[in-house]
Amino acid sequence: ADRLEVKKRQQEMQRREMFLEDQYYKTDELLNRLDFSLPKSDSCQIANSGPESTAWTRSHTYKQTLQEDENRRLEEMKQEQRRKAELMEFKQKQEEEARTRAHQNEQRSYLRSLFIFCCILRVNNAFLDQLQKKTQPNSIYQLGYSRSLDYLSNSTWV
Questions:
Q1: Is the pTM of this model over 0.70?
Q2: Is 141 inside a domain boundary?
Q3: How far apart are CA 34 and CA 63, in angstroms?
Q4: pLDDT digits (tens, 9 = 90+) for 83-97
Q5: What is the pLDDT of residue 138?
Q6: Which structural domain range is residue 104 located in?
Q7: Total Cβ atoms within 10 A of residue 141
Q8: Is residue 151 part of a domain?
């Protein structure tokens, strides 16, 4: 049992060492990829090129690339919001124009109906005036008033 316990500990130690070694290689590989993908800049170089400064530089450049990516995404989102706002404004203008046209069409329809009603009323009044002339021979229409009444009824609606 003791030998088995010792063997398990040794295997666990070997696994941890392999994991740490693998982790070290992966981290180093990532940092190297970041170094190659970033443009070289004289202003970012550090005079002391020891292992601490290169690790800090790599970390700093990595953080800068993350910040730039975030800024680019934010700018794209702002542009998308602007496009959406412009589209909403355009749709609102179209709806307002459609409402205005509908209101104008309603007004035209109402005025046509009113005009037709007035024409019918004028015809009916003329018919009633002629009927009254025939039934009352001594009415005011024979005294010269018929011309002025016909003029007023005709001039108002023509």
A1: no
A2: no
A3: 11
A4: 999 999 999 999 999
A5: 63
A6: 1-35+57-135
A7: 17
A8: no
